[in-house]
Design brief:
3 strands, 17% helix, 46 residues, three-stranded antiparallel sheet, single chain
């Protein structure tokens, strides 16, 4: 399901939605940034 909109993006957190669901993704306590986990094609949809 494609991402419709990225609502919020911080170092260890991202909130985005698809056509059917809103996601809240927290990578804490993992060391990688949440933004590094989002493919560039999804980030451009924001």
């Amino acid at each position: 399901m494609p991402v419709v909109k990225i609502h919020e993006q911080m170092g260890d957190f991202v909130r985005f939605e698809t056509a059917k669901t809103e996601y809240h993704l927290s990578l804490s306590p993992f060391p990688r940034s949440a933004s590094a986990m989002i493919p560039a094609s999804l980030a451009m949809a924001a």
